[in-house]
Amino acid sequence: MKKVLRSLLFIFPVFLSAQLKSPSEFLGHELGSAFSRHHEVVDYYEYLAQQEPDRVQLVVYGRTHERRSLLLACISSKSNIKNLENIRLEHLKNMRSEGRAKKSIVWLSYNVHGNESVGTEASMQTIYELLTSKSTYLENTIVLIDPCSNPDGRDRYVNWYNQYKNAEYNVDPNSKEHYEGWWNGRSNHYMFDLNRDWAWSTQIESQQRLKQFNKWLPHIHVDFHEQGVDDPYYFAPAAEPFHEVITDFQREFQVTIGKNHAKYFDKNGWFYFTKEVFDLLYPSYGDTYPTYNGSIGMTYEQGGSGRAGLGVITGIGDTLTLKDRIAHHHTTGLSTIEVANNNAEKLNAEFKKFYLNRNYKYKSYVLNGNRDKLRALENLLIQHDIAFGYGKNGSAKGFDYKTGKIGNMKITEESMIVSSDQPKGTLVKVLFEPKAKLSDSVTYDITAWSLPYAYGLNAIASENTIAKNDIPHNIQEYGAVKTGSYAYLTDWNSMNDAKFLAELLQHNVRVRYANMPFVMDGKAYKRGSLIIVSADNKDLHDFTDILEKASEKFSKPLTHAKTGFVDSGKDFGSSSVAMIPNLKIAALSGKPANTLRFGEIWHFFEQQLNYPIAVLDESYFNGINLSKYDVLILPDGSSYTSFFKKNTLNNIKDWINEGGKLIAMGGAIDGLSSDEPFHIKKKEEEKDTSIGLESFDASQRERIKSQITGAIFKATVDPTNPLAYGYGDTYFTLKIGNRAYSYLDGGSAVYLGENANTPVSGFAGSKARKKIDETLIFGMESMGKGQVIYMVDNPLFRGFWENGKLFFANALFMVN
Fold first, then answer.
1. What is the spatial distance between Cα 189 and Cα 206, in angstroms, rounded to a whole number?
2. From the centroid of its chain, how far is CA 698?
3. Are 591 and 567 within one domain?
4. Which of 363, 448, 511, 711 is least crowded, fewest Cβ atoms below 10 Å from its Cβ?
5. pLDDT grade for 476, boundaries at 50, 70 and 90
6. Which range, of 85-99, 468-482, 748-762, averages the lowest pLDDT?
7. Where are the alpha helices (DSSP H) in 294-418?
8. Are 14 and 96 in contact (CB under 8 A)?
9. What percent of the chain has pLDDT over 70?
10. Mean pLDDT of all residues in 80-97
11. Domain ends where: 438, 469, 500?
């Protein structure tokens, strides 16, 4: 009788689990026969959490811009879920070598690219089997599943596909259902690539996810993706270059996991590849960012993406279906958890080792500079749980980022100190290091990103531990705005200043700016300084209230001027003190523009500057009366030559001549460079006339000589040019390609001078360096009553190059 009872007790939980509806049963269609909309996926996860509250905890960790839920499901055995918070806290103690953690933690992230849509479907089958046939995998493992990291992009793709697919899906790759439009589902609402935003955290999805990620810091993190239709499956181990901070164990365990996947793929006769294409260097991916936080971070790539639909014929004549794609991602997901469950002790031991003092060369990073830029960096560090402090009066010696040599820097109470001797020390080393070491120059992404350059701060990387205060420095108080002042003055040298200006303009406050430096009451003011004259705003009844609130909101100190008569320079009534217009701004969307580059502009206006922008699509652009707009922005792209046909360019030139301001970025400049009266001239790479006899493999490597894979260069700035107001005489620019243009006569605001073509960080090929020698970065020229502004490099790249954003604000407000 006892044996029968024990058998019944063993069978009973399995019987309960068998009552769970599979994804197919719950959704009402066979999984893989249709794409599930996001709300259906949410419904299924909520159903599982309701049916299995002892084994599933569901957290809504945020919302997207389009108000869709961001979910994180925590799945484990009943005993583990009951003790979940203690397990999590014990795991985090390993960062301080104090923990006795015994469970492994695996985080599976799906569908960060919205049209790589198989991930979310596979996640439902994976969680279902973890709760049924694979429940033994949960004995030693906590599994965290984010079923859709990019709900807005996913639903954009799914809704598009459901609109355009045939009644029975068509496997012909030429059929409409295999061709998404320009506004595709890969990126999020603002057309950002969320898989490149982990470290920079510019997007709302990333910001909310990081809170959960840092709460858990999993042993293993997998980012599920899709690639081209004709590509077989990719899984770990990754390709070179590996960043030097990656441990031997992190490398070795990727092999362990890869071999376990191979066992299942070999059994099914599925094709796969490893150690190619997808490297571990750029810190803002879903594999590298977790790796730099102690995880085994991996990318899994299934062939398919938005081109595949429910089924498509591949290049070799096979049919690839959504069901096939689900099976592959489902297999690697379960295989990963299996390996983690069997290696929990090893994973915990090595995670603890990762957080021991790594004894990096640079012990401290000392940063001085504009307070607004320091505050922006503080906000980023807080999101990453990176500790920082403030200086004690003294000095530091070390690598000087500005000169590229050993130098000294004064330390004050306003100096930020970031130490690599902290739990997040490895991440600090990666984000702050002057130059990442490359084991291979062929990489999948940019090779330079150092935060002191990105934020425009003077910095020293010191080999010594610099003493610091771990409490915030004193924050200036901003008092009431005095009435009766002739004018209110403030500086102009940061993106925060641009936000302050935008706030005032939005409230119809009239603002002037100085085109020449001046001195008032013994205080010097530089070009671009804002001058808010009371007489200009006499009809604005709540003028001082608006000014006071804006001053407080943006921490902008205002100096009260009793007169418009300056000590030296130009008085406030001079023509050198110009009014900033309340601009009507438009940006082009559609085929000529790159979607990501358009998204950076859109996000800049709506989520950073908070200033209205109209989006004009190329499909109806020629029917628009451009005179309604003061500024037109052409994002970087590759099809402008075609776009400028059909009299489009003539219309734009007429608009500029009548006073319009054109901002042309990246590839948009190509379409202007061969047309009069634009004076921008493209610089071509010198052709190699020698006959190459190298091997085919060597010729592949030869191409690298013409490439720049995201490298940082030290550029010269003309601070008297309105495009450069608020900057010093140098700027560190991030180049993501070898596009090059000659100087503009009298209009070169930022440029690479002679012999300035060697990057301070990152890779640039020898032919590319020669091509960009003595070339333009940012420039402007007048045309009739209007202006044309050229931005060869992208100051808004991925939203993280903080020090470039003021150039864009200058293009809007200072160039008149």
1. 13
2. 34
3. no
4. 363
5. low
6. 468-482
7. 322-342, 344-354, 371-383
8. no
9. 95
10. 97
11. 469
